[in-house]
């Protein structure tokens, strides 16, 4: 029973402060739309895959599995090294402010001979070209420096790209955040409102039953204005004098 009363009070507060909730949600939604359109541009992700094969040396011998694991770990560090990144930066005329290291992500799953190169940027075509050139440069330099022949770029057609930030999702999140913020403001406004607006609140505060109510607003509207009452009195006095004469 107590839970129903609390729920009724909550719904009553939301209904009474409905304007605050709507205004807060509208403001938050507007800010989210502006940020999504002008500030938070969509982010695209391009992926390239490097296959570490049998790792055959130039003399025809193969590297054992233990050395393969070491070489995989070294390859990940090598791709993120200045040897590769400086070549990529020179190719696209990138400066330190472009934060090339943050754009390129290198991953490798456990017990896998595939290295993933992930590039994220607001330009889909640039992310695709950057991922492809980084993978090719890494393979050429690793085959040369490590003196192996089985680093290969796995590509089946065009480099795959995908969107990792959805503007519609951002707007939906902004709307829900605005609604929750509006409800919170409504509850705070109600908490600091000390006025009594119903007989039930008086009974809760005093513990005494309310035996009657007087609607002062209705009584004030029924009373005539004071100027009209004085005017009636002035017109009545001569009438009574004439009657006596």
Descriptive key words:
245 residues, alpha+beta, 2 domains, five-stranded antiparallel sheet, elongated, disordered C terminus
Model description:
There is one protein chain. The chain has about 240 residues and is of the alpha+beta class. The protein has 2 domains: about 1-40 and about 165-190; about 45-165, Alpha-Beta Plaits, CATH 3.30.70. It has 10 helices and 5 strands. It has helices at about 1-15, 20-40, 65-80, 80-90, 100-105, 125-145, 165-190, 200-205, 215-220, 225-245, and strands at about 45-50, 105-110, 115-120, 150-155, 160-165. Strands 1, 2, 3, 4 and 5 form a 5-stranded antiparallel β-sheet that branches. A hairpin with a 5-residue loop joins strand 2 (about 105-110) and strand 3. Helix 4 (about 80-90) crosses helix 6 (about 125-145). The longest helix has 25 residues, at about 165-190. It is elongated. The two termini are about 75 Å apart. The model is unreliable at about 1-5 and about 235-245 (pLDDT under 50).
In summary, what is this structure?
With 245 residues, the chain is an alpha+beta fold. The chain has two domains: 2-39 and 167-191; 44-163, Alpha-Beta Plaits (2-Layer Sandwich).
Secondary-structure map:
Layout (H helix, E strand, L loop, with lengths): L1 H15 L1 H22 L4 E9 L12 H15 L2 H11 L7 H4 E5 L5 E8 L2 H22 L5 E4 L5 E4 L3 H25 L7 H8 L9 H7 L3 H19 L1
Antiparallel strand pairs: 1-3, 1-4, 1-5, 2-3
